[in-house]
Amino acid sequence: MKTAASKSGRPQLQVNGILLVDKPAGCTSHDVVARIRRTFGIRKVGHGGTLDPMATGLLVLLLGRGTKLSPRISGADKTYEGVIHLGVQTDSQDLEGNVTEERDAAHVTEEALRSAMAEFLGDQMQTPPMLSAIKQDGVPLYKLARKGKVVERKDRLIHVFEFALLDFSPPMVTFRLRCTKGTYVRTIAADLGDRLGCGAHLAALRRTGSGSFQIEDALPLDRIRGLTPEELVDRTLPVYHPSLSQHAPR
Asked: Of 22, 52, 94, 191, which residue is the catalytic one?
């Protein structure tokens, strides 16, 4: 472990590698990066794939020279578990948005639900939501959406490997989804509601896997911030970790 002094005279921890964090709800991925940077005085901290503020789960942080791995890690397939609320649509496609329509979902059977979910498997084109960080002419879409503007978005090719029903307690659908990078899970939730004729939104989301990295190997953010510098170094995976061979973009 090495430390160096910053311009302010405060010690900076020099560590290179991968840190697996269990992100809490209510903070952005950038917030997590900033908190780790401030807590340990690490100059270079990045992440390998963002999570929405409402989402919890695996956030792969990249420290020091590990930031060079960002394209490989962010390009890995992702696994999620979550809950979809049938019968209620929101403008953000998740529970943080404003309700735009409510419809009866009593007609949805488990058989119909499984059949509709199976239709999402494979390659498909997905239209990103307006409330997203994708930029158009240099402006994030969510900023345009807050001004009441709706613009045409370019569809993205995604692939869904698995969309499994874990529990159906109407109107709540608990699911597992394994997909390629850049997939908007809340858009899949909204599209599923449309196919079922009742509308829907994403009520909860947790990322459980990113490539070969799993949530079971991550520590909650608060626990990580309570580590000593030595303990943080021990928790950091090396830049040349064997599992990285599985993180090459498809």
From this structure: 52
